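EI: anyone free to look at a 126-residue chain?
SC: sure, send it
EI:
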Amino acid sequence: MIKLPQNRGFSLLEVLIALVILSIAFISVFTAISSNSQTLLRLQNKTAANWVALNVIAEAQLGLIELTQSTEPIINVETMFGRDWYCISTLIEEENTGSYKINLEVKQEKTSPTLLHMIGYLRKLS
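SC: here you go
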């Protein structure tokens, strides 16, 4: 009996199927990494906006910045992490409490959507 040599390699079809499976796996890994990066950037911006809002409220309570009651919102520009943040504040007198309510919005640009909305209170100085 004559023994025929056995093929021990992969066929072209098997190689193509393996490449398709690997490409699908790599695409899903890159998509997950991209999504995590975007989420991290959003969280970083939200955290910075929160700190900016807390700083503005603390500065107003300490009298370092003056917020006056008016019909137009007051725009303050605060710098944090080397970037300017736009804080739009509205002062509303609270009835029978002797305090003002500060509505504060933090934006990255004047025309960009609001990143954070915070409410603080300021004691009326008699």
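EI: The mean pLDDT is 87.
SC: 👍
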